[in-house]
Amino acid sequence: MTSDQDDDADLFRSAVGPVRKLRDVTPPPASRPKPKPRARMAERDEAAARDEFRHALDATLVESGDVLSYRRDVLPPRVLQRLRRGEIAVQDEVDLHGADTREAEALLRAFLAHARDHDAACVRIIHGKGLHGGGPGPFSSRDVPVLKNLVDRLLRQRADVLGFHSAPPTQGGTGAVLVLLAPRRSGSA
Asked: Where in this protein does the record put region Disordered (predicted)?
């Protein structure tokens, strides 16, 4: 068998011809590690969705005295009626007064996550009536309550919100909203 290998090596050398050894080359200096890949398309899509959410001004904007109300199909109408009358105990609340739209959105998202993590079923969000509104932001207008519209749109898009209704007059009226949250699934931590 070694003769076959020797024959193959001789055949290769005769086919290639004379060769010369390359001198040793020093390896290039160590470069910085490559950056971790980023999902740039996903980041752009999320940014576009946030912008669309913020700039989705249309005829559905609520006004100062308007009542906020929303119910998912899984929530029985009777439960929303109880919420509207203030018969469901509020377990936590957040007051968004004085926050601009970005701060209010971040605060609201963090509050809802905290409430859900602590198994709160009903929470109150105080957004104000928008009588002193205006200022910079996607809903900026003297006639439109900025935070109220932000709260309305954000709550409608969250899967963990079963329903909400403006609070009864004794709990803030149209300047606050009572929110029913879906229970956490037993598998989530």
From this structure: 1-47
Helix (H, G, I), strand (E, B) or coil at 95: strand
pTM score, whole prediction: 0.62
pLDDT in tens, 13-54: 888 888 888 888 887 777 778 888 888 888 888 888 777 765
Which tokens sit at 33?
Answer: 């590690």
Residue ranges per domain, the chain?
62-181
Architecture of 62-181 per CATH? 2-Layer Sandwich (3.30)
Q: Are strands 92-95 and 122-126 parallel, antiparallel or unpaired?
A: parallel
Coil, strand or helix: which one is 149? Answer: helix
Separation in Å, CA 90 to CA 135, 155, 179, 181, 189: 31, 17, 9, 11, 23
